Amino acid sequence: MTKRVLVNGAGGFIGGHLVKRLKAEGYWVRAVDLKRHEFAEPPADEFIVGDLRDQSVVRQVVRGIDEVYQLAADMGGAGYVFTGEHDAAIMNNSATINLNCLEYGRRAGVSKFFYSSSACMYPEYNQLDPHNPQCSEDSAYPAAPDSEYGWEKLFSERLYLACMRNYGVQVRLARFHNIFGPEGTWQGGREKAPAALCRKVAEAPGGGEIEIWGDGLQTRSFLYIDECLEGVRLLMESGCTSPVNIGSDEMVTINQLAALVMEVAGKKLALRHIPGPQGVRGRNSDNRLIRQKLGWAPSARLRAGLQKTYAWIAPQVLAADRELVLA
């Protein structure tokens, strides 16, 4: 009998790719989001446009579902999450979605939930040294995330684990570290660093410059979408019930990330450092636990993912420029 799964947030970047992956594996997939996917049409068996903050919508979409992949959230890059201007909406919207998803999902007989948490839930005090951030799963407490987005992720992790203890549903939790790739937001303020830099480099004329928020010495790791999905599927099929990092451990500075994008694009540009939201000084995925639990960890090089991402974003930038000229 074909397993029936629900993907919440299927109109977004990771959710859209996940629908493709699940369909390729033979699942029956119902997809839900506030909006249709901006760049692709996920091949779901059903795509429902609906607001998961609305209890009546959630009651409808969980009917007849075996497993839920909960990726829906109010989120974006540093320009959205770290300004402080969206804190109340981020916390209210995402928490409401998770409360609804769990409550009505378990009532409807959903047996297993995947929840996409974030590395933003790790304590800020562990990420002050850009050269030596601490992001092992057991370092989450004492809790001190650097944003309300991170606090909501931490709350929701505890919510899912409490429901597993109290109601017997199965839960799998992944702490994502900066997932990137084609078919994701690349402009408008919610884009993340790899997409933003690909856009900036594509827009800049040779010999020009691009802007970098802060000194560019803050460190991060970035995981290509295909490896993210591999980790999600392995985790769902495993017996691991504790949160695990899904991210690359290839740590780079933002300046180095920009240099890689320029290398991929074949452009030499100057960096102009300006004030802007940056988040923590250092973050990198600690992959010891995922290797222990799943016998697997991401291994693809950052440059390879950037090549594919830039090859997708650059034509989008060109098309947008043409539309402006025609307008």
Task: Characterise the protein shown here.
With 327 residues, this protein is an alpha/beta fold. It folds into two domains: 4-180 and 224-246, NAD(P)-binding Rossmann-like Domain (Rossmann fold, 3-Layer(aba) Sandwich), CATH 3.40.50; 193-220 and 250-283 and 301-326, Alpha-Beta Complex (UDP-galactose 4-epimerase, domain 1), CATH 3.90.25.10. Helix content is 40%, strand content 17%. Strands 3-2-1-4-5-6-11 form a seven-stranded parallel β-sheet, with helices on both faces. Strands 7-10 form a two-stranded parallel sheet. A two-stranded parallel ribbon has the order 8-13. It is globular, with a radius of gyration of 19 Å. The N and C termini lie far apart (53 Å). 46% of the residues are buried. The mean pLDDT is 95.
The H-and-E topology, N to C, reads as EHEEHEHHEHEEHEEEHEEHEHH
- How many whole angstroms does the radius of gyration measure? 19 Å
CATH level 1 class label of the largest domain: Alpha Beta
Overall number of domains? 2
Number of helices: 10
CATH superfamily of the largest domain: NAD(P)-binding Rossmann-like Domain
User: Which segments are poorly predicted (pLDDT under 50) over 5 or more consecutive residues?
Assistant: none
Taking all residues together, what is the mean pLDDT? 95
Based on the structure given, which CATH architecture of the largest domain is correct?
A: 3-Layer(aba) Sandwich
Which structural class is indicated by helix and strand composition? alpha/beta
Q: In CATH terms, what is the fold-level topology of the largest domain?
A: Rossmann fold
